[in-house]
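Structure tokens
________________
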Amino acid sequence: TSHLVQRKWRTDYRLWSLSTSRQNAMTNVFRCYLLIAGVVWSIKAADIYTLSEQGESCATACGLQGRMCTADVQTNNTDAIFEQLGIRCRTDQPVWTGVDQPCYVSDQSDENYGRCLGFTNVPSNNQSCQATHWSVQRLCRCGQPISNSPFFGTGYSAGHATINETTRFAHTLADGTTGVMTHFWITAPPDGGADVVIRYYVDNETTPSIEFTPFQAVSMFFNDSHAPWGNKWFGMGAGNDTKDGKSFSINFQIPFTKNIRVTLQNPKETSRVFFIVRGVANKTINIGGVHVPPHAKLVLQKNITMLQPLEYVDFASVAQGDGLLFMTSWSVKSESWNFVEGCLHAYTPRSQAWPGTLLSTGMEDYFDSGWGFNAGVFYLPNAGCTHRVKSQLGNLSTVSAYRFHEQDPVTFYDGFRLQWRNGDMRAPGGGTKCFTISGGETVGHPALAEVHSYVWLYVW
């Protein structure tokens, strides 16, 4: 007797399972559970069939089930599987014509809306687990369980990032297992790569804790093409020639305890992309001798602001909890170079009074440079300056830089705040800098500044 068991994997997901050796024995006793967002079915120790989300690949849909995609969908030349999945569709175009079929056209703007396509004459082992189409939900066969795999990941070759956010990788862990995403790589032609947005959804998040563009994630806020350069955490492996694309790699360690989803989107236009993601199970994260708990979350906090002279900005703010400042990068555009005089302050607990702990005596000092980044662009393991254009007062000056806090860990408890100032002042009478809020002597002539920042923190 086949035993049917309820499993709920995610909202609005419908799942139906076939035992290929017992397809004619489905008259046995079964249990049915109506879930909030649909009906979910599974047969023990058997392959399962499921519909992907619109625009999603079968590799992704099966990954969310903790299974490997099997490129051999068997329909017996009927639409019965679609019906079992709750799809009532038009069947006037049943013949298989492409690797993204069988599928259901779920987008109303598609002329084939409501049709089930390609479910007859389906060739054996000739479907693609990675194929997608923006307007369809693919019929997917999910086989071998992979929730206990020691490592996991995928590659996406000559694919597309569209204006629709689409999941390109997903993985679900077995109970009692933890996971860490360890590697991300992407390249794209020069006409579209700069606008691609990558999002990581950790443990059933509906709002991603990590969202970035490749250039800004590697501190290239001005889209500079210089390559190759890098360190163990990130870098650029291709670039220079504007006729070709650029490549970016990021090896930040992203912990999760249930599941992970990685999505791509180009909000401006459809662009070709190639990307790779990879992770491992049960990995211990250690940053500069500080143990990061498995239940911690890596969070990216971003900021874009216009600062008046001597105005402060919080680059990072954690209301409560413990954690670790992992990495910072930011860029500044201003008609005065005196923004570099701004000092960096850290506060823990978050309610700590000003001036907190002074992390730098000027912007360039924090990034292990000096004298206004006078050595120009550099890329070191702990810190670097990725862009520098210094102009005379009244003309635009620009700079961007990064720092990792691995050799000098910055831990916090009961919340955290990271604060920078556009320019700074000395104590009255020409005293020291960084410890005077008002009434002192302004250093130089700071001007209005546009500031972009990325701050990565582990929080637990």
